[in-house]
Amino acid sequence: MSKLASNLQIDSARLWSTINDTAKFGGTPKGGVRRLTLSAEDKQVRDWFRQALEAAGCEVHVDALGNMFALRRGRDMSKPPIGLGSHLDTQPTGGKFDGILGSLAALEVVRTLNDAGIETELPLCVANWTNEEGSRYAPAMMGSAAYVGDFTVEDILARKDGEGISVAAALDGIGYRGSEAVGTQKFTSFVELHIEQGPILEAEGKTIGVVDSGQGVLWYDGQIVGFESHAGSTPMRLRRDALATLSEIVLAVERIATELGPNAVGTIGEAAIARPSRNVIPGEIAFTIDMRSADASIMDALDKNLRAAAAEIAGRRKVEIPLDLVWRIEPTHFDAKLVDAVQRAAGELGYSHRRITSGAGHDSCNLATAMPAAMIFVPCKDGVSHNELEDATEADCGAGANVLLHTVLALAGVAK
Length: 416
Ligand SMILES: [Zn+2]
What we know:
416 residues, alpha+beta, 9-stranded mixed sheet, 5-stranded antiparallel sheet, binds zinc ion
């Protein structure tokens, strides 16, 4: 690689101003962003993104689910491009970094290469994936999931939001139902920069997370069927109390995940008493369980231990506890060569770094099932994300974008 290319740095002040400028599309008074997928605000940022990439010489095209692709030509157009990017949609009360950093850093990489007059050997392609967040439409990571064939396009287009508006109607409403078939745009490999959304890098004072794996997920719909009876006249030993049972399940999930940790987590995030009343012993409860690990054998153990605990509690308390495993995603193993390339770039740039597992799902976890993929993390303040208070520093965002630039340069090569 030429000296020019190997010493190249992105313009972190320019990246920082694009992050702050585009935060006005759906900006909230508390400094966050509300930009639900395929909303009017999403259209505003998409239009801005398209214009910025076209101004940077890219050719922008859109597929049938609104996934956006901006091609920067390379010397060798016979091979698919190196992909980079993330998502521009946010949670209802989201921040201005989740997804956005990776998308705008990809734009910054293109601008930096343009300014330096560098042609890459392979082409580059900046992507903005539709509906990563999953808050308006299920599933999350929708655009990339359909791209890798986990769902049919027809299925996704028919999904409805809380107001009955289909994905198809929402795409048409903002003019982002493209003509290109989903999956047409191929990639040689894909690299995504993202904030960590967790506390590890900040706590350890590391600048770059070299993401080598993503957690697998187990989702259960659970139920407890006991017996409703009078809160005054039913003696304690004769009760079949669904809520008291749930409290044991909650503690069992906490214990099981802790015992199988540190590479395991477990959460009960939803619970609803059917027909709740102050003077009725709860007879029926619906609840959810979310358990995760980056190790498939630990996922198996989480499942086995959970079921054993539920059976023991159910027998002792004379209630039923049906558990329905509604979703299982296997752990992601990012491509070893790409992970090494990220680590090498971080090392050569002199940034402190460590290997890390992604606790959250990302588009790149989907993409990794179909192509070599990797991710770069930077710290976010107090590990807070999916919150208007989400924050990251200009220096860390710039560092992440530099690692993205040099990983992409290493993968795409510099034309002679
Ligand atoms: Zn994200």
